[in-house]
Amino acid sequence: MWATLVSKQSWWHGITRYQWLVLFIAWLGWVFDAMDATIYAIVLHPALHDLLQSPGGTVSSEQIGWYGGIIFSIFLIGWAIGGIFFGVVADHLGRTKTLIITILIYAIFTGLAALSQDWWHLAIYRFLTALGIGGEWAAGAALVAETWPEEKRAKAAGILQSAWAIGFFLAASFNLLLAGYGWRVMFVIGVLPAFVSLLVRWHVKEPDRWAKVHDRDTAIGSTHITDIFHPPLRRSTIVGSALAFVAVFGLWGSTNWAPTLIRELPDLKGSDAATLSASVSYAIMALNGGALFGYLGFGSLADRFGRRAVFAFMCLGSFVMLPITYLLPTTYAGVLMLLPLLGFFNNGIFSGFPIYLPELYPTRLRATGAGFCFNAGRVLASASPFLTGWLVTELGSFGRAASTVALIYLVGLVVLIFAPETRGKPLPE
Fold it and tell me: pTM value?
């Protein structure tokens, strides 16, 4: 009787220990993935202030906005290239092997960024770091989707995406703990994910779905990325790429500038470095507190209302909350109150991609298709930080610039008109 009651009340009933283990290890990899991606946003201001400093000169906000935007853009291009390339590798070589390779790449080059002596050194290291971060997304999303039961896949993907909120919290926490040690030590901390690769190596095997297709169909060795542009997959590829473009453009063109926005608030100007560092950390925690609810809630909402409806809800919420958060409050306390709502929508939308994109492609093309869609748009979206940096010089503030970028979410609402609905359908074989 108790077992029957639990089965009716608990969605996780029946999940095996191994399936939980796979989810946890992939989740842990994404935690450090997010931490390494966030470190740059946190240390952007002090790092560029040091790297651009000339004897007897000063570094302006416009300079930091300009060079910071360039490095952000280079990072996104690397993320796109890594995501697409390693997505193909994951379909050929396997999900777990690709996971190990990509984790090592982003861990090592995040650590090496501490050695930067000029802004372009940092740009190169961030590009190489991004190759691994982008590649790990495709391998991890496919691994979890193919290991978990069909009817519980969306919730597992939501838990997986929640790793990003934890990663942001971790980066902010390290920033608080290591305040006063300088920005370079933050990059050294980024070497920690290398240890996750050992867990993958020891405990995770290739999914049965992938192994069966790989053994049965020798044609998988000749699979080309162009296959995802052939009917009937062409529509899914275009829609998936466009949705990811909208989400990435909005995130990197606006929300990821929040640390710099905080430093520019009138009531924080003139504060000492330690106060500014702590204020930025608490702001990131507030943003990602809301994001965590968005990540975890997307799966349940998508199972109830459908994938398209929840994507639309997140786009609309982001469109409204960005200008409200960046333009209305003039104090740190005001921004801190609104950041959780912004995070729920602006970051929460990303939980839809590990749910939705693997559902669009058959096993032999799953990592290739999901990796391409999630990352191809980054090539175009890589212009968003650069655009924001330019808008700062034109509009005079980070708040006005980031709020202008919010218009991209209207494009997302249009794209969703053409998106196929996958709720209740099994993964294509």
Answer: 0.78
